[in-house]
Amino acid sequence: MTDDKRALAPAFVALALLWGAGSGHAQAVQPPPDLADTIIAHIGMVPARHNTFHESKHIAALTHDLTSSGELIYTRPGHVQKITREPRPETLIVQGTTLSLARGQGPARVVDLSHHAQLAALVEAIRAPLDGDITALRHDYTLAAQGDVAHWTLQLTPQPAMARYVRTITIDGQNNAMTVIRVVQANGDTQVMRIDPPA
């Protein structure tokens, strides 16, 4: 994956199942719902979102972190916008399998995600939770969840094809909202996005 393609990426539950109730004769007991599935389903219940974000990137080759801020917009199904206001204007839009990136007043660069599997997997790390699409998320990542539905952490470990580029993606959240997204690249560089609650 080229540096340009990395720049295009970040850069985006089912209700608790009832236990089988006994009624005088034995019944099979349903297993508890998987916490990761529950978290993703809760996130996916919100059809539209508009939040501000603050992002920092730690790159080993640089002497200081890179910071940016702007807005995140999501509309079901699968439409995500990351609008960077500071330090320089930039607009990243994902719709279906199309990703576009425009910097300043320049023309947008358009990428067909169906031809770039690694970039598509990075996009789905954010978009699939917003869509409530656990199947898409599990296609590219192994999931591990901690906490409960009120305060949770979701760790995404990429499948081998992605592991050359990304070590882990960790998402912290509360209830149906993602609050922090951390991406650790294979070389140790990190990107942390903090998502503010709606005003």
CATH level-two architecture? Clam
What distance separates the N and C termini?
Answer: 37 Å
- Which structural class should the secondary elements be placed in? alpha+beta
Strand order of the largest sheet: 6-5-4-3-2-1-11-10-9-8-7
Average pLDDT reading: 85
Query: In which range does the helix fraction lie?
Result: 10-25%
What is the total domain count? 1
Radius of gyration: 18 Å
Q: Specify the biggest β-sheet.
A: 11 strands, antiparallel
State the CATH topology: outer membrane lipoprotein receptor (LolB), chain A
CATH superfamily: Lipoprotein localisation LolA/LolB/LppX
Tell me the number of strands.
11
- Which consecutive residue ranges, at least 5 long each, have pLDDT under 50? 5-31
Protein name: Outer membrane lipoprotein carrier protein LolA
Signal peptide: 1-28
Keywords: Lipoprotein, Signal
Organism: Komagataeibacter xylinus
Plain-language structure description:
The chain is α+β, with helices and mostly antiparallel strands and 199 residues long. The chain has a single domain, classed as Lipoprotein localisation LolA/LolB/LppX (outer membrane lipoprotein receptor (LolB), chain A). It is built from 5 helices and 11 strands; from the N terminus they run H-H-E-E-E-E-E-E-H-H-E-E-H-E-E-E. The protein has an 11-stranded antiparallel beta sheet. The chain is globular, with a radius of gyration of 18 Å. The N and C termini lie far apart (37 Å). The relative contact order is 0.19. The model is unreliable at 5-31 (pLDDT under 50).
